Amino acid sequence: MQTPVPVYRPPPAARVGLLSEHRPNPVANCNTMTSLLSTTIAGSLPKPRWLSTPDQIWADWLAEGELLDEARRDAVRLAVADQQAAGLDVITDGEQTRQHFVTTFIEGLDGVDSDNRADVTIRQRYEASVPRVVGPVSRSRGVYVEDAKFLRSLTEQPIKYQLPGPMTMADTLADDFYGDREQLAMVFAEILNEEAKELEMAGVDLIQFDEPAFNVFLDDVAGWGIEALERAAEGLSVTTAVHICYGYGIKANIEWKRSLGDEWRQYEATFPVLAESSIDQISIEVANSNVPLELLDMLGDKEVLAGVIDVATDTVETPERVAETIRAVLEHVAPEKVFPCTNCGMVPLSRPVAQAKMTALADGAAIVRDEMAEVF
What we know:
Elements: H1 65-86, H2 103-107, E1 110-122, E2 126-138, H3 145-154, E3 160-164, H4 166-170, E4 174-175, H5 181-201, E5 206-210, H6 218-233, E6 239-243, H7 251-258, H8 267-275, E7 281-285, E8 303-309, H9 319-330, E9 338-342, H10 351-375
Helix pairs in contact: 1-3, 1-10, 5-6, 6-8, 9-10
């Protein structure tokens, strides 16, 4: 029998007060991830209009060559500054150097044809133009390692780097060579492990594998998805996470979620195997979702990156609303294991909306952190 999870309940007259009164999270000035309710984003941020077409995924770059390299690094600087201005604790590069969270990594590998793309159905719900696997896939150089080193140079705060998970990679391409999704995912897992170890050496504190496919191919998760994920993370000493959400705030995903009914129970199939895995943190969707929060009890002692910001709407949450969602999560997860986050990436949103949502995230966590300081 599992030890009951300590439940946090705010005092009856919990102080909210002015946001300016909130004490800053101590994590902001140190290289640790142990401070209470440390905040971060799932990954992507909107790109500046001078870098790529706004409000799109897979948007074309608006520069080439050395000018593009410079533009992307300037965008990373802005992304870091925006997260710091919002008061977030764990910083990412906002995925400013990649067109897409999956295909950019695939295109950096050998055995892949990114020029003659194919149209395929991904996540069983929408068409996408994706690279083709045309031969044995291998990694002859780091894909994001130099980008991670640059991010590390910009801040002393903890940094997180996102990699696509092996199952999601296998679902976001046209396979003209292997003919076996499991085999291809295992090849990707080996490659991801190489990349992750170099990211660790570059100074990354948390490596997150993005696996939205885990919410679609439920039988395969237990069959081989977890094995591939654990192989990708094998031997890492940094914190590891897996991000499993219901997708960007785009039409195909929004319509799919509407079809799932009053309760979204996909996590019920994956949480038990994740609870037994070697992955440290599980990143999930909570805000404005129909996920029954009692499913969090199935994660045992795992840390939870709780999505308390809805990325499928331009409506900006109030800090009080964010705090309310965090409190709901704390009914099922011990406070020291909760890391408030966004539901998913925010690249389809406008920059002002994304900035306001990040600020609400930090301020909402500060409200609950102050309440807990009064309790304990």
